[in-house]
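thought: fold this chain, then report.
action: predict
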Amino acid sequence: VRALPKFGEKAFVLEARVPDIEAQKKAGGNLEAFVLHDALAGLPALPLFEDRLEMAIARATRAAHGKPENAVQLLVTFFVDMDRIKDINASYGEDAKAYILSTMSSRLVSSFRRVDTIARGNHDGFLIFLENINSLDDVEMIARRIMGLVKEGINYKDQNLALGCSIGISVFPHGALTVDEMIKQANAALDQVKKNSGDG
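observation:
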């Protein structure tokens, strides 16, 4: 079993958007498909990210004979927020921000396993969910890999934009045993990093 993400394999990318339900109705489309998939890119939306996480928790709980706190394999959620996006947006405009998020999305997709799940988080970042992780040392290694991908920077209109990120992490079964707990704890950890000047 490979515990760490390997470079060069596709991951699932999920992007959460507020659906324009009326527009979808007028277009005669399937509302359920519209809500569960990104209308522009045709990708799964945040509810499917949560569903995949919930199924993984159920599998881990069954493997631990109904006692999730005894699970051996770790499930990890990373809440990744791009630092300096507001400054870049102020200097270069909304197009630069969109380009950065799009480029980082592609970069993350190409750097994780096909079984891993990546979603657009709130605001300026991403949610990443991994399962079958062996140890907390592996979690730290993966977080540092994500930071390295971001710090490679992005070239935008012949300008090399230096980037950084803040990462909040939650780990099942270490304190987070449900989907809500995993996302909320990762978000709370992210907030703490941001309060400490970010980039960590």
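thought: worth noting. The first strand starts at residue 12 and ends at 15.
final: tokens above.
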